[in-house]
Amino acid sequence: MTATRAAIYARYSSDSQREESIEIQIEQCADWCAAKGWDVCETYCDFAMSGTNADRPAFQRLLADAESGAFDAVVVLKTDRFARNVEVSRAAKRRLGAAGVRFASVREGESTGTAEGFLNEAMGEVIAEYYSRNLSKLIRDGVRKNAERYLASGRRVYGYDVDERDRFVVNEAEAANVRDMFEWYVGGLSTGAIAERLNDRKSRTRMGNPWTVASVNKVLMNPAYKGVYRYGGVVAEGQMPVIVEPWLWEDADAERKSRKGRRKRARSAVYPLSGVLRCAECGAPMCGSSGTSKSKDKYRYYICNGKGSCGGMRLPADRVEGAVLSEIREILEDPGAVDAMVEEVLAYAASIPSRKDELEAEREELKRANESLTAALSYNQGVATISAKIDENERRILHLGMELAREEYDRRKLLDEEDVRDYIARMADAAECDDKQCKILVETFIDKIYIDRENIHIVYAIGDDDEVFGWEELVSLKKNEHPLNASSEGVRTINRWWR
User: Fold this and answer.
1) Which of 315-319, 347-351, 373-377, 430-434: highest mean pLDDT?
2) For the sheet containing 286-292, what is the strand order?
3) Ordered alpha helix ranges (H), 301-355
4) In angstroms, rounded to a whole number, what is the distance separating the alpha carbons of residues 387 and 374?
5) With pLDDT > 90 as the criterion, what percentage of the chain qualifies?
6) CA 24 to chain centre
7) pLDDT > 70? residue 469
8) CB burial class (10 A; 0-12, 13-18, 19+) of residue 354?
9) Which residues pair with 160 in a beta bridge?
10) How far apart are the C-alpha atoms of 217 and 42, rounded to whole Å?
11) What is the DSSP letter of 278?
């Protein structure tokens, strides 16, 4: 008796699955055929193709070969590998049936043609389409198999490239930034300051975005840089190329945990004048503090940290901030001051080099690269690697388009005099509603503020850096003595601020 000639069909989609899932499907289908005594005469594989339509090269060849009598049965691992659309599945099975070719699934069994078999098959098709529509495309076996081989599996990690074997290799340019991040962090820099330094270098994340606190933290918390591979439940030391010495990574981790503890103990209230507010009696800094009254109402204060004659002066934060903000508002509403600010902003904006040519050149280069990669697909070699590179390039092209749009928008806004004037007009309003905006405004215009129970002396951030108005000069002014330097011209006094 002649053995049944079987053809195996396998497919993986283009999301989380990879070429290795094809291997698993073929392996299990072949074992199933062997157990039944069937001979596998051909395999048909569609790589990175959706099962929701019939436009798949191997799928169409399978149907054509079935109609020419090349085999007696089609075997798939699961019905959803054959098709994830009921109509596509039914139409293809009708063609197989008309050619006298049987259809079998390792997981669901062989189509029997009985009423019960028809019902089971129909339910399998409906469930396959349901899962397709709900994006259930992750093959856990494939993830596990990739992880056990320490493969990249479609992941992209800053500091690494992926070679032709789908393994991580060091990207030296990015690795230099990674090492700097760890050294800066252990050296005491905040994640925000690290992000600023990287952005000043014109460095970008792997997705082409500017660095942020979150993206810096993601790097600092990733054990891959000390050689640890983690994916799909597999954790293996020594399976990633080392970028950061393990001792440095551990020091950064200890520092991160220490800072996290300090943040938990920090006060949640925002004090926009902290850092610039000083006691006019003893010259000591004044810091924010809060308290709760017997009626459970919360109050905010600025308290002198000094040991001088002021006796630890405590002043209501809302009144102090209101008086200072009112003074800054006068500047923002003064026509001459506004004209000077607008002129300075426009001059600064005009001096910023445009990145438009650079971004457009990179985008065009990636488009040309994708055209070449697409042409290479026709040779059916390294399909998974080429497809992954095309996807990566497409994501970068998309982000470059967004960066170009943002670049043009930002420059247009900064070079539009009316927009600049409108922004300046809204600065004080925003500061009155938001303590963080208030702090930005204070840091922009004010160098120091000296305060006592009667007067506020505001020292504006104007003039050269060496023209410093200190507490000693304030004391000489209070004694009606001649000021020590010309910077006192930038001092404004608010009398009886508490009214």
Assistant:
1) 315-319
2) 286-292, 298-304, 314-316
3) 317-332, 335-351
4) 8
5) 13
6) 33
7) no
8) exposed
9) 170
10) 50
11) E
Q: What's the CA gap between 222 and 308, in Å, rounded?
A: 49
Q: Which residues fall within 8 angstroms of residue 136, CB to CB, at 6 or more apart?
A: none
DSSP 210: P
For 162-218, the pLDDT digits (tens) are 888 888 999 999 999 999 999 888 888 888 889 998 998 888 988 788 898 888 988
Task: Check: CB of residue 366 under 8 Å from CB of residue 175.
Answer: no
Give the model confidence (pLDDT) of 24-72 as tens digits.
Answer: 888 889 999 999 999 999 999 887 777 678 888 889 999 999 999 999 9
- Cα separation, 154 vs 490, in Å, equals 59
Question: 446-451 and 277-279: which strand pairing?
Answer: parallel
The CA dihedral of 452, 453, 455, 457, to the nearest 10 degrees, is 20
126 or 411: which leads in pLDDT: 411
Residue 29's nearest CA partner among 77, 79, 91, 81 is 77
pTM of the model: 0.39
> Rounded mean pLDDT of 415-426?
78
Q: What per-residue confidence (pLDDT) applies to 59?
A: 92
Give the list of residues 6+ apart from residue 110 with CB closer than 8 angstroms, or none.
102, 103, 104
Indicate the SS3 state at residue 372.
Answer: helix
CA distance readout (Å), 421 to 186, 341, 413, 414, 418:
42, 9, 11, 10, 5
Residues 6 or more apart whose CB falls under 8 angstroms from that of 292 comprise 298, 299
H helix intervals, 307-465? 317-332, 335-351, 356-377, 383-414, 417-433, 435-445
